[in-house]
Design goal:
By secondary structure, the chain is of the alpha/beta class. It contains 11 helices and 10 strands. The strands form 2 sheets. The protein has a 7-stranded mixed sheet with strand order 3-2-1-4-7-9-10, with helices on both faces. Strands 5-6-8 form a 3-stranded antiparallel sheet, covered by helices on one side. The radius of gyration is 20 Å and the shape is globular. The structure holds ribulose-1,5-diphosphate. The site of ribulose-1,5-diphosphate has 18 residues, from helix 2, helix 6 and strand 6.
């Protein structure tokens, strides 16, 4: 698969979800490296930077993308021979992808422990990190059921309900505006994250903050499931996470609404006070411990 094909797939959301975007980007960068046939180190570095820039430009919100690229690119900054640089990039990219898969398995295990027997769970959008614990809990024999939001405008909820139904998990599809109507029946909310900021704020699919606020009102715990590569070191330096605005045609055909402004922000920020815990592959943490995760990552991701 060419780099351009991966860029197109991420932009068009054929590849979507922060974790899968990160893995696809790491794989694409390694393949892009193989297209460089020269022997000059500087030319190699320029080639790699061009690939990194193209991938970074695909979607702005998920820090997993930047983190995957930073990790894969790191050997290009070392003072080593080109052949070692190439081997280093391949190793870094491959290890990132392997670690991402292992992280999901651990999150599934930790998250499943957190789901009580007989629980009714609400989820929003389509997050593999949030769905794996639910599927694991079901496979472990827990009698659970799920309410999944439609997640307009892209309706990632359709993917979620099909995935859960295929695993035999009892699941109900609801429209986004029915969240508060059903919240009293929930025992737990489980969602994923695109980015976690150093203050513990969680940036995830638009509507996540509304779900979390309704959960708080109904005294329902909100659990965010996210690999540590979704934590953003740059937010610790004061950088603000950019919220992606997508084509308004994803919402309605603008030609049918002359004189109307249409807005399509696709992520929002849930402040830490609305989040009970974050489950990572390193364990369950308070959102207020996000800075500590980032501090530990600094050796990996600058
Ligand atoms: C997907 C989304 C998901 C997170 C986490 O948005 O908001 O909740 O990316 O997903 P989009 P995962 O469909 O716009 O990419 O846990 O699979 O990484």
């Amino acid at each position: 698969m060419t780099l351009q094909a991966t860029v197109d797939d991420i932009k068009s959301m054929k590849v979507r979800g922060a974790g899968r975007i990160a893995e696809a980007a790491a794989a694409a960068l390694v393949e892009w490296m193989d297209e460089f046939k020269g022997s000059d180190v500087e030319a190699f570095r320029e080639h790699m930077k061009r690939g990194e820039k193209a991938l970074l430009g695909t979607r702005p919100t998920a820090v997993s993308l930047r983190n995957a690229l930073t990790i894969t690119m790191r050997p290009t900054g070392d003072d080593i021979q080109l052949s070692d640089m190439r081997a280093g990039v391949r190793k870094a990219g491959t290890e990132f992808m392997k670690n991402a898969r292992v992280a999901l398995e651990r999150i599934a295990e930790f998250g499943a422990h957190r789901i009580p027997e007989g629980a009714t769970i609400m989820t929003h959008c389509n997050s593999q990190a949030a769905l794996r614990p639910i599927i694991k809990a079901h496979k472990d024999g827990k009698d659970i059921k799920v309410f999944a939001t439609e997640s307009r405008p892209w309706r990632q909820g359709h993917v979620t309900v099909k995935q859960l139904a295929a695993e035999g998990v009892p699941v109900t599809l609801i429209v986004d505006s029915a969240v508060r109507f059903f919240m009293d029946e929930m025992d737990i909310v489980m969602v994923g994250a695109d980015t976690i900021a150093s203050d513990g704020s969680v940036i995830n699919k638009i509507g996540t903050s509304q779900v979390a606020m309704c959960a708080r009102e109904a005294h329902v715990p909100v659990i965010v499931c996210a690999e540590t590569f979704k934590f953003s070191p740059r937010t610790a330096r004061g950088e603000v996470v950019e919220i992606e605005e997508r084509d308004v045609a994803e919402v309605v055909d603008p030609k049918e609404f002359p004189g109307v402004t249409i807005a399509n922000p696709v992520f929002d920020t849930t402040p830490p006070q609305f989040i009970t815990a974050i489950i990572t592959e390193k364990g369950l943490i308070s959102p207020y411990a996000a800075y500590e995760i980032i501090r530990q990552m600094q050796g990996d991701i600058l």
